[in-house]
């Protein structure tokens, strides 16, 4: 079982305290529904990780922790074995005491593309929707966030996050809750809300934008990253059963369409601040994620297309104000 008591104590003293009216019951219900052999194995792996007090932590330029004396090769192998019970590791990388978790995605590259466009996070309370292992939560803390909250309903990602947090010395500035955005009340309490790689998985993208808006304080910043296509206003791709082998991809907008959606939802100061095609170096197989990745999702004879014949993944970052 995961103990969320520390998080309850933190938000009882800040602007998230109203969340306590529903949150404990939601998380208790989630834990009842997620008791299976894999979850139990992951929890046991976390328990057997060493309790290390880091001498140095870098969250500003990476997610790195070091001790005064390097760990022995045997200690590093033990940590590696425990963390590999939680494969696949998709979002990272993490560098912990000589153990390098080389994740499928170079999420640090995404962070570098958007960090210069963030409002100052110093002392702020932020939310990351669909946060996976929580890699970006640590980068938000490194950028000065007082409290970084991630939500993602997958049990594996919660366990990966808790494992990393233990290895970072049980840092209480970041927390992951196994919830979906639709389960959150209208908190209107976060200074910045991130939604990265989520919008195209939602049946109703405008409903998702309204849900994100409901979490922001007045004047708060939305940071949204999503797949996009080339095209004019009013154009969006609605793929068939799969897109780049992903299921549950509903709408991939053009940039003008995405800007229009944000405008229709009442956001202000809307800008696209980055657009880039996903490279085979940014998303790939590794020793920590051994199943198919981007190279297998693209047409081998035409890398500008997916195996289904759609345009290859291109991602854009948008910022806007409530």
Automatic annotation (TrEMBL):
NCBIfam families: PRK15068.1, tRNA 5-methoxyuridine(34)/uridine 5-oxyacetic acid(34) synthase CmoB
Assigned EC number: 2.5.1.-
The protein's name: tRNA U34 carboxymethyltransferase
Stored SUPFAM superfamilies: S-adenosyl-L-methionine-dependent methyltransferases
Reactions catalysed according to its record: carboxy-S-adenosyl-L-methionine + 5-hydroxyuridine(34) in tRNA = 5-carboxymethoxyuridine(34) in tRNA + S-adenosyl-L-homocysteine + H(+)
InterPro entries noted in UniProt: CmoB, Mo5U34_MeTrfas-like, SAM-dependent_MTases_sf
UniProt entry keywords in alphabetical sequence: Transferase, tRNA processing
Residues that coordinate or bind carboxy-S-adenosyl-L-methionine: 91, 105, 110, 130, 181-182, 196, 200, 315
SUBUNIT field: Homotetramer.
Family statement: Belongs to the class I-like SAM-binding methyltransferase superfamily. CmoB family.
Function: Catalyzes carboxymethyl transfer from carboxy-S-adenosyl-L-methionine (Cx-SAM) to 5-hydroxyuridine (ho5U) to form 5-carboxymethoxyuridine (cmo5U) at position 34 in tRNAs.
Pfam family, one: Methyltransf_9
Gene3D superfamilies linked to this entry: Vaccinia Virus protein VP39
An individual GO BP term: tRNA wobble uridine modification
Entry's Gene Ontology molecular function annotations: transferase activity, transferring alkyl or aryl (other than methyl) groups
Main EC class the enzyme belongs to: transferase
């Amino acid at each position: 079982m995961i103990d969320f008591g520390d998080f309850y104590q933190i938000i009882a003293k800040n602007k998230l305290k109203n969340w306590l009216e529903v949150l404990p019951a939601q998380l208790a219900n989630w834990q009842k529904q997620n008791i299976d052999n894999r979850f139990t194995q992951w929890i046991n792996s976390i328990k057997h990780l060493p309790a290390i007090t880091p001498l140095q932590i870098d969250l500003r330029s990476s997610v790195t922790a070091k001790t005064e004396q390097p760990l022995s090769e045997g200690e590093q192998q033990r940590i590696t074995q425990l963390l590999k019970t939680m494969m696949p590791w998709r979002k990272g990388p993490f560098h912990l005491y000589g153990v390098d978790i080389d994740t499928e995605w170079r999420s640090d590259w995404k962070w570098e593309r958007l960090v210069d466009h963030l409002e100052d996070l110093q002392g702020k309370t932020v939310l990351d929707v669909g946060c996976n292992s929580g890699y970006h939560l640590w980068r938000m803390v490194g950028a000065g966030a007082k409290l970084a909250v991630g939500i993602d309903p997958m049990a594996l990602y919660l366990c990966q996050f808790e494992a990393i947090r233990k290895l970072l010395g049980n840092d209480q500035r970041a927390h992951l809750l196994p919830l979906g955005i639709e389960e959150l009340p209208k908190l209107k309490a976060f200074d910045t809300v991130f939604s990265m790689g989520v919008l195209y998985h939602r049946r109703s993208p405008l409903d998702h934008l309204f849900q994100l808006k409901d979490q922001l304080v007045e004047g708060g910043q939305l940071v949204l990253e999503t797949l996009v296509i080339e095209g004019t206003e009013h154009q969006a791709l609605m793929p068939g059963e799969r897109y780049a082998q992903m299921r549950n991809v509903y709408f991939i907008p053009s940039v003008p369409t995405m800007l229009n959606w944000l405008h229709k939802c009442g956001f202000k100061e809307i800008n696209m601040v980055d657009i880039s095609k996903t490279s085979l170096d940014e998303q790939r197989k590794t020793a920590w994620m051994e199943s198919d990745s981007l190279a297998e999702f693209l047409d081998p004879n035409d890398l500008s297309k997916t195996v289904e014949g759609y345009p290859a993944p291109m991602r854009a970052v948008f910022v806007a104000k409530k």
